[in-house]
Amino acid sequence: xxxxxxxxxxxxxxxxxxxxxxxxxxxxxxxxxxxxxxxxxxxxxxxxxxxxxxxxxxxxxxxxxxxxxxxxxxxxxxxxxxxxxxxxxxxxxxxxxxxxxxxxxxxxxxxxxxxxxxxxxxxxxxxxxxxxxxxxxxxxxxxxxxxxxxxxxxxxxxxxxxxxxxxxxxxxxxxxxxxxxxxxxxxxxxxxxxxxxxxxxxxxxxxxxxxxxxxxxxxxxxxxxxxxxxxxxxxxx
Length: 237
What we know:
de novo design (two linked rop proteins), 2 domains, 35% helix, elongated
């Protein structure tokens, strides 16, 4: 039996479970993503009512014999971040990425601190930079890290003024000139993403495109719900 107490955690998702309980998907510091049942959490007098919210830092305890655990402790571990509209949707995007890509119970994958930093960046108006760094680190933590500092064909260091074609699951290959029919990335962008210094609007735009192309391989054909909702809101605005 796995039994944990006072483990830092964030709620990624919840849904009703049986009559009055909730099935929680949580990200924990030491035990990765966990599926945990909060028994009676939807009851009017539940001790956890109102506490189990996304982006609220928590200390939780649970016990588990198999895939699903049972919640035994939940208390605040700091203040909930205040976010609205774009920052809030971006934070939910982080949650959806973890739900789609992070296996339950894989304690070898260290994502907790990266998630905390990304949430803070989103809340502090460093939204695009925070998202790109999180995406890059998530791919690396999952074993799909991007090659960003050298040409995979020649082994030569990336040149800031050069143009590169990036082949997913392989890496960058320098081209003699920017071709109109193929997506190319400047060496400056690859190096900025490698060093996580994304303070230029053009670099951020290219880095977003590069990361989305690589994430799509592992996310599959099913679209992200957060992207669909945000596009719908932008159309109606």
